[in-house]
Design a protein that fits this description.
Strand content of chain B: 15-25%
Number of strands of chain B: 14
Largest sheet of chain C: 2 strands, antiparallel
Helix content of chain B: 40-55%
Shape of chain C: globular
Strand order of the largest sheet of chain C: 1-2
Oligomer: heterotrimer
CATH architecture of the largest domain in chain B: 3-Layer(aba) Sandwich
Largest sheet of chain B: 7 strands, mixed
Distance between the termini of chain B: 72 Å
Number of domains of chain C: 1
CATH class of chain C: Mainly Alpha
Chains: A mainly alpha (320), B alpha/beta (408), C mainly alpha (292)
CATH class of the largest domain in chain B: Alpha Beta
Number of helices of chain C: 11
Number of domains of chain B: 2
Chain lengths: 320, 408, 292
């Protein structure tokens, strides 16, 4: 069982390392973009799939991380390394503040409060023209020469994403991660057993926000631009869909979902302008035939893991 | 002269001509077609401008490709940026890295234009902007690889401000869409208004989200403040809405909007457009009424079912600039293309247009007028037209140099 | 800032609130009775606007065209919603919320692209009949005549929905099913039929909102974006499944934004979100009673 995963992991690592030599520039860029988006989706899944929280506006932390780096470099004159570190820290702080208010609510209300608080952040970015560039965003952000080339940016992205995924994997396997899953499955029981549910959820949110911030600064390294769309609710919904599409009860699921979505947008988008139609149909088919998402289905088929598969919510009387 | 001497003379003349002919340019043939990548908005309210520009571009290509450029035809591919700088940038990236275009062309969204311009500079790909008007494109953020075949906010702001100042308006309210173009055109207008009339006062300003569908609350609030005149900085996404709302609520304050008199703006609105709005544009299909312009309009109407607006004119001259620059460069090399394009003059339906070398900005005139009904057309047109030559409204080369230095 | 200006902006905000109410009422009905967070509710609003335009265009500016459009568009969206519910959605009721969100998101993508396919990417304009063109001066403010229709339509819809919910059998059963669907099923009622009806009514309201807004704005792709998030927030603020809550929430949103323009023009668009956040922090389940 371990061998299978180890071999797969090594193959993937080898593939990532070889990519700059093998892939044409556009596909290398696409791979880097998928890695960044996949990290963002995986960070969301920490609180969504493993934590059971309705994190509807995860994009806020991604945007805050990216904007902090962008504003730091272009308006405050920070050196690149400082900006790239400050981004995730700012995102984690935002996670703490927003999380503090949100964990007091549950399910749909948690998500809605997050949506409204996140939208306020979006409006600030949209309106604070002198600092954030308003509707334009900030472009042409200067970075050290090594990062200005595509292979250089890719190297940073690949290494950081790999390290981040390693940390997230460790978290999920740790006692903290298992407690989080217990809370997801039955919060009252966990509470009765003496677990501080809110504290755990808040900690998970801060961690998730931190890695969303990492994804944000990696985006800056790759595109050297930031856009207010990063803070808009549509992107947050897209990341959510990536998790559900890929399999939100599995670890690699969100990354797979990100690959599908980004790939679809770029590759199908070149042949038809109706690629969202294709995606919509795909999602509907998925819900009926692959309810656990792509990876969830694959993992169940190959029984790589003993993680419990999701039980559908209390089956009421079936209708229709 | 004797018979023999004549023959020697003729032979000498022929020989010299042959040598001169050989010394002149040997025939060049390009080994592949020229590929142009177009990024523009083809969905939503701004699509009417993007389509107009593309139509003008295609009309010119039909004419150009009859003879070709050194044996090559000009091909193009389009990408829809949906008025989003993020999407536009990734489209440009795909066009350059994957489709391997020789030249990038676009777009209507000024923010996208700036984002693509930064990318074009880094990739050393020529980028010709044909609708976006932010003066930063060829001004503070201009560089070797970016060109503009459209007018910019510095030119339009100056023309509008001086015209409004001449009419004696001094107490203004400014309303605009909160994005790059909105900021640039509004700032430019106010800067030149203060220069023309230092006693001009700003009663207030209102900024709304780009493409905001419901402008009634904003316009009613402005009307209640009772300014002497109003300036609106609206672009492709908001132009139709602001004009329609003005007419519906009977907005009775004298208003100036750039491109308000252009047919691309007025035609889709038809009877829903308000009269009496001051505006500027750099091309009108009915003015000046020269034979060349009439022919251009006729061809365009026959091909696309309606008269050309300013985007079509820009698209048309962009194609000719590209063709002539490659012809002059005699090479597909991008840097030679850039050098050939600087300072290039081409004939257009409204006279010769020059691509100024110091900032890569096409020298275009500004036409000022007011919207008025016209029995000849089912839409409003510009009346009381006045032309201001491009050189009178463009920033000087010295201004450009200083702006670029400051931006460093 | 004088009283006249405030009153004027109040009236403007009220007419905008009416559209928000009609759309949000539909959403809260669906959320309350079926517990489905319908992400394609906004797309149906957009479909309603486009269908209204098509009907009015087909009648070539005939004065009755607009009224026919207002009648047809909601029926079309109700039909679309009903078909989707009977064929696909009803099989997913036992699934978790996130799956329902995913499904309705997928349908939203499909519907949006279908609109683009059928009507093309350019924007449309719907001109109201001459009797409703121009503006009237209400409290010193020039209000588009058509907005008066909105000021009348909103309360009419509110009254109609109340009558439906409290005076018809179907409505009463829907309210019961919203509170306890198992009990209602145990009493022998075909809950499936109840759900289908409630969903159809919800989609009808979305289409009606779109048709009513069509003469006042550019009918374009993407008009559903801001409306969708606004209606979700309104529904949460008002209380899930609570019609009066939807009214209160819509009034809050519409009025705070338009009056906010007088107070703080730069950040007026933030007021609705700030209000929502404040309400959720103080009363997490919404201002009025929630169905669940």
């Amino acid at each position: 069982m371990v061998n299978g995963r180890l071999v797969a992991g090594l193959l993937v690592a080898a593939g990532l390392a070889a990519a700059p030599a093998v892939l044409p520039p556009f596909f290398l860029y696409l791979l880097a973009l998928i890695l960044v988006t996949g990290l963002l989706a995986t960070s969301l899944n920490l609180v969504l799939g493993y934590g059971g929280l309705y994190q509807f506006h995860h994009g806020v932390f991604y945007g805050i991380g990216a904007y902090t780096a962008a504003v730091g470099i272009t308006r405050l004159g920070w050196p690149a390394w400082l900006a790239l570190v400050a981004g995730p820290v700012a995102a984690a702080a935002a996670g703490l503040v927003i999380g503090f208010f949100c964990v007091r609510l549950s399910r749909l209300y948690f998500g809605m409060l997050q949506l409204s608080l996140g939208s306020l952040v979006w409006i600030v970015a949209l309106r604070w023209y002198p600092v954030t560039g308003g509707d334009n965003g900030i472009h042409g952000i200067p970075l050290p020469a090594a990062l200005q080339t595509l292979p250089g940016a890719y190297a940073l992205v690949a290494c950081t994403v790999a390290a981040s995924l390693g940390v997230l994997w460790a978290v999920v396997q740790s006692p903290f991660g298992l407690t989080l899953q217990a809370i997801r499955d039955n919060p009252q029981r966990a509470q009765v057993m003496g677990v501080d549910v809110r504290a755990h959820q808040l900690a998970a949110m801060v961690l998730a926000a931190f890695f969303a911030g990492v994804a944000g600064v990696l985006y800056v390294a790759l595109e050297r631009s930031v856009f207010p769309n990063m803070l808009f609710w549509v992107l947050s919904l897209e990341i959510l869909v990536m998790c559900l599409l890929g399999g939100w009860f599995t670890f690699p699921g969100p990354m797979v979902g990100a690959a599908v979505l980004v790939g679809l947008r770029t590759l199908v988008g070149r042949y038809t302008e109706y690629w969202t139609l294709v995606l919509g149909v795909l999602l509907i088919l998925l819900i009926f035939f692959l309810p656990e998402g792509i990876m969830g289905h694959l993992q169940r088929r190959w029984t790589w893991t003993r993680a419990p598969s999701p039980r559908p919510a209390a089956a009421g009387d079936a209708r229709g | 002269m004797t018979d023999r001497r004549w023959r020697v003379l003729v032979a000498a003349v022929v020989a010299v001509s042959a040598v001169a002919g050989a010394g002149a340019a040997p025939a060049v043939r390009f080994d592949r077609n020229i590929k142009v990548g177009v990024v523009d908005t083809y969905s939503g309210p701004p699509a009417v401008f993007g389509n107009d520009a593309l139509n003008g571009f295609k009309l010119a290509l039909q004419e150009i490709n009859r003879d070709g450029v050194h044996g090559a035809r000009i091909e193009f591919v389009t990408r829809d940026e949906k008025f989003s700088p993020e999407i536009g940038l990734s489209m440009a990236r795909e066009l350059v890295l994957q489709e391997r275009v020789d030249v990038l062309v676009g777009t209507i969204n000024s923010a996208t234009a700036l984002a693509i311009s930064a990318f074009a500079r880094e990739q050393r790909v020529p980028f010709i902007v044909w609708i976006s008007k932010s003066e930063d494109i060829t001004g503070a953020k201009g560089h070797r690889y970016v060109f503009s075949t459209g007018e910019n906010t510095a030119m339009a702001g100056k023309a509008l401000a001086e015209a409004m100042a001449r009419r004696g308006f001094t107490r203004f309210w400014l309303g605009a869409e909160d994005y790059e173009y909105g900021h640039r055109i509004t700032n430019s207008f106010w800067k030149f208004m203060k220069r023309a009339k230092p006693e001009a006062t700003l009663l207030g300003q209102t900024w709304w989200r780009t493409g905001e569908p419901d402008l009634v609350p904003y316009l009613t609030q402005i009307q209640q403040a009772r300014p002497q005149a109003v300036f609106f900085g609206t672009g492709g996404a908001g132009m139709a809405n602001v004009l329609r709302t003005m007419k519906v609520i009977g907005f009775n304050v004298p208003t100036a909007i750039h491109t308000a008199i252009d047919v691309t703006v007025l035609r889709p609105l038809g009877a829903a457009a308000p009269e009496g709005v001051f505006g500027t544009t750099d091309y009108l299909f009915y003015y000046p009424d020269t034979p060349a312009n009439r022919k251009f309009v006729q061809d365009f109407q026959a091909a696309y079912g309606g008269p050309p607006g300013f985007p079509a004119f820009h698209g048309y001259i962009t194609a000719y600039f590209i063709a002539e620059a490659f012809r002059k460069a005699r090479s597909l090399d991008r840097d030679r293309f850039v050098e050939a394009l600087e300072g290039l003059r081409i004939p257009t339906p409204v006279g010769e247009v020059e691509m100024r070398g110091c900032d890569h900005q096409a020298v275009l005139p500004m036409i000022f007028g007011v919207t008025r009904r016209d029995p000849r057309f089912p839409f409003l047109v510009g009346a009381n037209l006045v032309t201001i030559p491009g050189r009178d409204v463009m920033p000087t080369c010295e201004d450009i140099r200083r702006a670029r230095e400051r931006a460093q | 800032m004088d009283a006249g200006a405030v009153l004027g902006q109040l009236v403007v905000g009220l007419s905008r609130a009416m559209i928000l109410f009609i759309v949000s009422a539909g959403l809260t009905l669906v959320l309350g009775v079926l517990r489905v967070p319908n992400v394609f509710h906004g797309s149906l609003y957009m479909v309603g606007a486009f269908v209204a335009w098509s009907v009015a265009e087909a009648l070539g500016g005939h004065p009755a065209g607009l009224w026919l459009a207002l009648a047809t568009a909601p029926l079309v969206t109700a039909g679309v919603g009903l078909a989707l519910e009977r064929l696909l959605l009803c099989r997913l009721y036992h699934r978790e919320h996130l799956m329902l969100i995913l499904f309705t998101f997928g349908v939203m993508l499909v519907l949006n692209d279908l609109v683009k396919l059928l009507w093309g990417p350019t924007y449309r304009s719907l001109v109201p009949p001459p009797s409703l063109q121009g503006a009237v001066t209400v409290l010193g403010v020039a209000l588009p005549r058509f907005n008066l229709v909105l000021l009348v339509a909103g309360p009419l819809v509110a009254v109609g929905l109340w009558l439906f919910a409290h005076r018809t059998r179907a409505g009463k059963v829907s309210r019961a099913a919203a509170t306890d669907r198992d009990m209602v099923a145990a009493l022998g009622v075909d809950v499936g039929r109840v759900f289908a009806l409630a969903f159809a009514v919800g989609c009808f309201l979305a289409g009606l909102g779109g048709a009513l807004v069509a003469p006042t704005t550019s009918i374009t792709l993407g008009m559903d974006h801001s409306l969708l998030i606004d209606s979700f927030l309104i529904v949460i603020v008002g209380g899930l499944g609570n019609l009066w809550g939807a009214l209160v929430g819509s009034l809050l949103f519409g009025v705070t934004q338009s009056v906010g323009l007088l107070v703080w023009p730069q950040f007026a668009i933030a007021f609705p979100y700030a209000v929502t956040a404040a309400v959720l922090l103080v009363r997490p389940t919404g201002l009025l009673r929630s169905a669940w």
